[in-house]
């Protein structure tokens, strides 16, 4: 813990040194011995005492709220990765967790997915399908292309084809709900996630049944079994990767078992 506090103080000190007073409408002054903002200026702009901010930079055992961390990130003009690092060091959840949703997929990422030979697709935090490849389209017998707004949850719980394709559908459905709760629980009040939850709870008794039980599990992958209408029983190992440039998204691959 002491190492984290020291790293947090060092990081804030370096970030403070990069910010020019003029960029925040402060006078440059002629008596500044070091570049960047003074501690007192950062504290004032963040609405905290200079002593309290000094203790944070010194790595003392003080508690820093998410609101204060958010103001520090704004005043110090932290980039997205820097902001994430700041909250990680403080071991605090970022209240602005929904900002990643507005970012587009990195250039050529859809091309990368299409080049994968195994069934593969990308999901956002609502489990909307943002990219897929031809092997995935074949495995799911034409989905998601037949859906104008493809969403994996809606497919599993509202599309009758899923019950035929997914072996042991009832068991898989219960686990899917628990995985989604773990995936999107911190975003449950965001409008996009809320809309998906409301629709599924109203339209699927199975989803509603499992959602209110508050079971949470990781989307850890493992064996997936499908009963394909043309190819028969197919076994895959599911592997899931988080995207570094879009941590709210994940790449899912299904590798042939055996």
Automatic annotation (TrEMBL):
SUPFAM superfamilies: lambda repressor-like DNA-binding domains (SSF47413). This is Helix-turn-helix domain-containing protein. It comes from the Bacteria. SMART domains: HTH_XRE. Pfam families: HTH_31, MLTR_LBD. GO terms for molecular function: DNA binding. Residues 11-83 form the HTH cro/C1-type domain.
């Amino acid at each position: 813990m002491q190492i984290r506090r020291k790293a947090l103080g060092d990081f804030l000190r370096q970030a403070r040194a990069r910010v020019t007073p003029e960029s925040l409408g402060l006078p440059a002054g002629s008596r500044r011995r070091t570049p960047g903002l003074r501690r007192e200026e950062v504290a004032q702009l963040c609405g905290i005492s200079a002593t309290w901010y000094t203790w944070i930079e010194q790595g003392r055992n003080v508690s820093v709220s998410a609101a204060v961390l958010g103001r520090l990130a704004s005043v110090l003009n932290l980039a997205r990765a820097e902001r994430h690092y700041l909250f990680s060091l403080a071991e605090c959840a970022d209240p602005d967790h929904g900002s990643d949703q507005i970012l587009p997929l990195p250039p050529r990422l859809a091309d990368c997915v299409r080049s994968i030979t195994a069934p593969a697709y990308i999901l956002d935090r609502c489990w909307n399908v943002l990219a897929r490849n031809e092997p995935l389209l074949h495995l799911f017998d034409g989905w998601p292309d037949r859906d104008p707004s493809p969403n994996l949850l809606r497919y599993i719980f509202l599309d009758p084809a899923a019950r035929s394709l997914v072996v042991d559908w009832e068991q898989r459905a219960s686990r899917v709900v628990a995985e989604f709760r773990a995936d999107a629980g911190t975003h449950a009040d965001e409008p996009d996630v809320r809309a998906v939850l409301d629709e599924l709870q109203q339209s699927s008794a199975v989803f509603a049944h499992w959602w209110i039980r508050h079971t949470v599990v990781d989307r850890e992958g493992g064996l997936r079994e499908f009963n394909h209408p043309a190819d028969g029983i197919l076994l895959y190992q599911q592997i899931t990767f988080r995207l570094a440039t879009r941590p709210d998204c994940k790449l899912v691959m299904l590798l042939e078992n055996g």
